[in-house]
Structures are given as C-alpha cells and as structure tokens.
Amino acid sequence: MRIESTPRQEAYRQTAADFAARSIRSRAGELDAAGRFPAAIVDEAAGLGLLGVTIPGDDGGAGRDTVAYALALEAVATASAAVAMILAVHNSLVAEVVARFGSDDQRRTWLRRLASGQSLGACALAEPDAVAGAGAGALGVAAVRDGERYVLGGRTAWVANAGAAELFVVFGTSEAGGERGRPGAFLVPGDAPGLQRAAAPDALGVRGLDCRDLVFQDVRLGGDALLGAPGDARRVRDWALDGVRVATGALAVGIGQAAFDEALAYASRTQAEGASLGRRQSVRSTLADTATDLDAARLLVLKAAAAREQQERCTLEASMAKLAAAEAARQAADRTVQLLAASAYERGSTAERLLRDARAADIYHGTSTVQRLTLAAELLGEASGLRE
Known about the structure:
This protein is an alpha+beta fold. The chain has helices at about 5-25, 30-35, 40-45, 65-75, 80-100, 105-115, 235-270, 280-310, 315-340, 340-345, 350-365, 370-380, 385, and strands at about 120-125, 140-145, 150-160, 165-175, 185-190, 195-200, 210-220, 225. Strand 2 (about 140-145) and strand 3 (about 150-160) form a beta hairpin.
C-alpha cells in the first residue's frame, strides 16, 4: 500500500510552506518575544484561503479537504506555532462550525466573512481541563431563556483570537430543568452589549494569540443567535473538538519537525567540522527515534484528517492523533535542547521557543491526560457517559 497526498493536496501544502518561508519564519522569534497578534500575517494568510481552508468556494473558502488543511497547518507551524494556532482556532472552532450547524441566515451573515478573513472568529470552549474551578459537567457560561431571548452571564478563560475577533462561538447552560433549561451553542458578535474582553495571563508558549478572558454581563441574544437547536451545545462542542484536535495534532507535528530540523542541522554541522558530536551513537539514536516518532504522529494525523472527511465523528482518531503528535513534539523539542545544550537554553533561541510551544500543544484543546481518558472511553464504549 502506498500512502501519499494527491497533487491538489500537495500543491496547497506547498502554498502554505512558501508562505511560511516568505512571511513568517524570519519573524517568528520577534513575534514570540513581543507576544502581539500578527495582524498583517493573518491578512496575508486570508489571501491564500488559509482562513477558510475547508469552506466551499461558493462560500468564499478555499474548498480544500481536511487532509490538505492538516498538511498546510503543519507547514505553517514549522515556522510559527502561534500563527498556526490562530488559523486552527478560526477554521476548526468557528468557520467550520458555522458551515455545519449554522442556519441559512447565520451562514449568509457570517460564513463568507469568516472564510475570506474579513472577520476573525474565536471560541469560548471553557473546558474543565482548561478553566480553573469548572466542574466535570461544566459547559461554558450560564444561559437563561427569557421569552424568545437568551441572557448569558459568566466568564470564560484563555480565549485565543479574542482581542481581534468579530464573532465568538459560545456554549451556555442553565441550572433550570426541562426544555428551557437545556444548554445551547450561540453565535455572539464581538460588539454585543455586555460582552467584555479582559486581559488574560501572559502565556509561556504560542505567544501572540491575543488571548483574553471573556466576561458576559447580561448579554442578551435573540433566538436567531442559537447555533443548531436547543440542547445541541455538547453535540456542537464535541464535533468541533474532533476537528480542532486534528488541527492541533498537525500543528504539533510542525513544532516537532522544526525542533528536529534544528537538531539535525547542528549534528550535521559538527560532523562536517570534524567534531565528534555528529558521530556519537547516542546522538544518532536520538535523531532516529525523533524522526520515527514524528513520522508516526504525522501518519496518525493524516489518518484522523481522512476520517474527519468520511465519518460523522472521528473522536477516536482525533484524540489518538493529538496525543501522539503532542508527545512527539514535546520529545523532539526536549531532545533538541539537550543536544544543543547552552546555545538552546538561551532565552530567545529557536530551540527554547519550540520547547515552550510544544508544551502548549500538549495542553490546548484537551491535555494528553484528557486524550487518554477520551480514548479509553471510546474503546470501552463509555464515550457518551464521559461526555456527560
């Protein structure tokens, strides 16, 4: 069996790789140090269809499949994990969600704006593993039905893209029972009265996402803001998480590949200069292990991306890919710092940045511990119980 991308998928990967080399790689260290949202780079990405990769061309997107999307994200992440994460959040947690669950009016209002990059999207996930104090069954902010309207109240944390976003996907629940108490997923415009964007803590890695905490103070929404049907919040969220975990897996592989490239270049250089480092068996074994781990993770990501195209849900494949890729990236970055020693330990070095970024990939959209719990639940047929 031969596994390879199609010419169309490879062409899009190359487009993303050229963009990364031309506009991102030389600025990645500066972007990380400043921690500022890279608006000009995101605008350029929009012109290449990278803000609507899987959205049909008729809706303003690039009309590519999820495999092409994963390949493109990996290529971007080899230059900057932050830029890749901005794209992943916008595509997987907002644009694709609106495309799949949005009403005709919601799609007409938002989908072309999102896919073309005219409007940036963000998602207030508020997962239990990411938000302090959230209970095992927590799901977003409080949402109370008031006649034909909904009133949102509460706070969500670490919302990527939040500073620049014009649209938020928000999940709400109510303590009330019965039909009116069922949770819902909502589209919340960035200028909604009562919505405040508070400063988030300074991040260790993947800096420049313009993360904010969102504060909802009696944010009143019409029934037309409901995404899907009442009670669909978990279904929407779980479907979105499948997609963003495939994307985060691709991103993690990109981080790991960048770290491996640093290590390989260093070992090759020392060998060419007559030093013994590149000839040491321990170094050669480390390079071999890292290359193998990354390629295995990459194949799992591509398998999950293909499953996303072919199946209603790809929870098993997505969690497996995200787990393997995050751990491969972390191992690759750690081994590179170990190999380069003092030069990598210096603040501002590429290897140091990749080490911090790899840790973020391990945490975002469900830690490795969460992925293991999800996988076990899927394998044991307990997935619905876990989600509840």
